[in-house]
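Incident review: delayed structure delivery

Summary: a single-chain prediction request sat in the queue longer than the usual turnaround. Root cause was a stuck worker, restarted by the on-call engineer. No data loss occurred. The affected request and its eventual output are reproduced below so the record is complete for anyone auditing the incident later.

Affected input:
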Amino acid sequence: MTVAPDFFDTEPRNWRARVALSVEVVRELSKATDPQEMYKLFARRMAQLFPVSRHLTVSRRGLTPPEFRVARFSQWADPANPWKESHRLPVHSGGLISELLYADQPRIIDGLALDADDPAAEYLAGQKCLLAIPHFENGTAQTALVLTRDDTDTFPRDRVADLVLLSNLFARATQTVVLSQKVKEAYDGLDYELRSIADIQRSLLPAKYPKVPGLDLAVHYRTAARAGGDYYDFFPLPNDRLGVLIADASGHGAPAAVLMAVVHSIAHTRPDPPLRPGEFLTFLNAHLTRRYTRPTGSFVTAFYAVFDPQNGTLTYASAGHNPPRLLRAADGFKMALNRAQKLPLGIKPDETYLEQTVPLLPGDQVVFFTDGVIEAVNSEGDMFGSARIDEELETCLPTADALLKSLLASHSLFTDGTTLADDCTLVVVKRT
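Output delivered after worker restart:
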């Protein structure tokens, strides 16, 4: 490195050297991710620009006046890392260093003299002059840098302002790196917890599709975050019937995932099989409202349908959920299953859910979906909407999986370049 003849010389002839050195130092510091390495780099640079005999950093964080902690001392053979080994740092009380630290002002002392019992004597014995630079946080000096020389060459007053500014900027940069590390550690810990919640949540979903004669199934499930509030489930019922539940807990992330897990628990601890959709949603709502949702104001939309291929019927009930779409293969007629809408689960404890029954003929297809599917937006802010689901239904594809893939392709093309804002779940059921 080429050191400027005198970095603190502000004469016009020296400006290029000052700029070049400033850029070089800042570039090096910008690459540092560890505060300890940043300090070593800065200390080495400053030793070239502004030589001193000794330097120490003192702190008052977590202490009461006149206590202070020595965080760094240039004469230590085995220096501690102040951010990781604070237990190794000595704490003292009173004396010159305490006075300098709590004064909140820069100070120069010429002809330095110390009492033998002053804690500073351990660090500053034999030094002739001193410069104290406070490092400010929230208006007070939480730390200070103490520079000394062992000759009578005093610290020039005209350089103090530059040194105060330079030292404080470095201290703030170091603190920013420390805070960034803490934020990253906190984020990593939170991310681990969310991944664990997501793993638990996915374990509550059906591991495989039930085999029901006369029905073909396909599912797509994707959360916007690690964990989400969408939920779907299958309930094999007597006489080759199948119950299909789709639900969407209010909110996003971990709170919604927890509520989803509660719904799963209530649904699977019910002693009797959920044969009647209206009665099943009434049961879920009563338990959810009385024990879980009323204190928080949360709720769950849900739709439950029972497919009966032998008798050719579909019976359903809805708790404020998006009406699924039914396509009749015989004539291409599309309909929304919206004749049994009631309040979402978790709002009114004595809500009673009604049900409707419609024919289900060979080739008929039903598409269940959550808000995240139809409320997804493209780059222009337009929503996907339920009409595009109806358009895909018109093709009347031969299998549930083929229809699901067609829906997903259309959805992906529409939302290309946008971020998923909500959980997306699609369940397709086709009567074969």
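Verification: The chain has a mean pLDDT of 91.
Action items: add queue-age alerting; document worker restart procedure.
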